[in-house]
Write a structure and sequence with these properties.
397 residues; alpha+beta; seven-stranded antiparallel beta sheet; two-stranded antiparallel ribbon; 14 helices; 13% strand; globular; disordered C terminus
């Protein structure tokens, strides 16, 4: 039986003409179905929730349809949506928390950590038999999560500055007290006791503030992946969802075998591996989960493919996932594409790139050349021709 998956995507809202991040979520959400779209902590962000799917093809159609729906609503207000960890152009004026008691508490308690939550992630849910199994699976799949982060890396810029990282969102996100790698727990009772201890300590107010890279859902019978940046290309989300589902299924099979794996008890390297992935994306070295030594991103991604190939073949996903993975390695991370565009043109052109990829367009729109007295936010002159290549598509579509 094929395990079902679902995705939550977070999107930035930007002005079409300036590319600047703007706090207009409540306006854009008017008229959109609340079961699919919702607000986040900051009004510059909108979240979408996919349906539950057995096939990657069904998930892809859902994600692209939802993106079109959100883009239409944003366009009606002179805005565009960006699926990326951060946007190239932002300013402190975009800091505008969403109303509500919970969000007000988060802003008052965490101050700048909450104020600078101008980041977006993509979260993948995979069905699991029960919470005990979900907790046991976490230990098995955690060593491979940094490879998924590298595939998603799309946040090289922060407030108009090149950070030198492929995923600066990761560095911003890890400032929360419960963010980062999850530890090893024997069962759900042990995990839930640890969560209660954190709540009782006053560090967090509720279980929803457990921001580990991986967690059992508090409301659904799923395991939730939380380490990834939002991805400009919907195909990248599908790739990550397919790989994560395969990792969960592979872990379940290993745990049910006559000789189930035993936790080695070493997790300190996981945070270092996530930092390495955030720094490098697909363009530099990652940490090999088997040796804990430095290895190329291509080596680590292909090692992951090799590990889960039997599962992918059994559910008919192998050709799709392999093709998408090789395409991702060939094209480079979104962070790489964004940085290259910014270097060749400017940050406004970079914003146009991620807007176009979020929409699934084949190229960026042409902007008129600025007059001698006009300025774009990056301080550089106009834009070059639109992109000549289309984003990757799921094979067969």
């Amino acid at each position: 039986m094929t395990v079902r998956i679902g995705v939550e995507e977070e999107f930035h809202l930007v002005e079409v003409e300036t590319g600047l991040l703007v706090p207009r979520a409540d306006t854009v959400l008017q008229g959109l179905p609340r079961e699919t779209f919702t607000t986040e902590l900051q009004q510059a962000t909108v979240e979408s929730n996919s349906g539950v799917h057995a096939s990657l093809d069904g998930l892809y159609r859902d994600l692209t349809g939802t993106r079109r729906q959100l883009d239409t609503a944003a366009s009606a207000n002179g805005l565009a949506v960006v699926a990326a960890g951060t946007v190239p152009l932002a300013r402190t004026a975009a800091i505008h928390p969403t109303a509500g008691v919970r969000y007000r508490h988060m802003v008052d308690e965490y101050r700048m950590v909450a104020d600078e939550q101008l980041i977006c992630g993509a979260h993948v849910h995979v069905d699991v038999p029960d919470r005990d199994t979900a907790v046991r699976i976490m230990c098995e799949v955690s060593p491979w999560l940094h490879a998924l982060l590298a595939l998603s890396a799309s946040s090289p810029f922060w407030l108009g500055t090149d950070t030198g990282y492929a995923s600066w969102r990761t560095m911003v996100w890890q400032r929360w007290p419960t963010a980062g790698p999850v530890g090893c727990f024997a069962d759900a009772a042990e995990y839930d006791a640890a969560v209660r201890d954190l709540i009782d300590s006053g560090v967090i107010s509720d279980a929803g503030m457990i921001y580990y890279d991986l967690r059992p859902s508090a409301h659904q019978q799923t395991l939730e992946l939380r380490i990834c940046d939002s991805c400009p290309r919907a195909e990248t989300v599908v790739l990550i969802a397919g790989l994560f589902r395969a990792l969960v299924t592979d872990a379940l099979q290993r745990l049910e075998s006559p000789t189930p794996p035993v936790c080695a008890g070493r997790h300190e390297w996981l945070r270092a591996a996530a930092w390495r992935a955030a720094r490098s994306g697909l363009e530099g070295a990652l940490v090999d989960p088997d040796t804990h030594h430095e290895a190329s991103a291509a080596h680590v991604v292909r090692a992951l493919l090799k590990r889960v190939r039997p599962v992918l073949e059994a559910c008919g996903d192998w050709q799709t996932v392999q093709a998408l993975a090789e395409k991702a390695l060939a094209d480079g991370s979104a962070a790489h594409r964004m940085r290259r565009t910014a270097e060749e043109e400017d940050l406004l052109a970079c914003t146009d790139l991620v807007i176009a990829e979020t929409r699934g367009d084949s190229g960026r729109r042409r902007r008129p050349a600025p007059s001698p007295t006009s300025r774009v936010p990056s301080g550089e002159a106009g834009l070059e021709d639109a992109l000549s290549t289309r984003p990757a598509r799921i094979p067969g579509r």
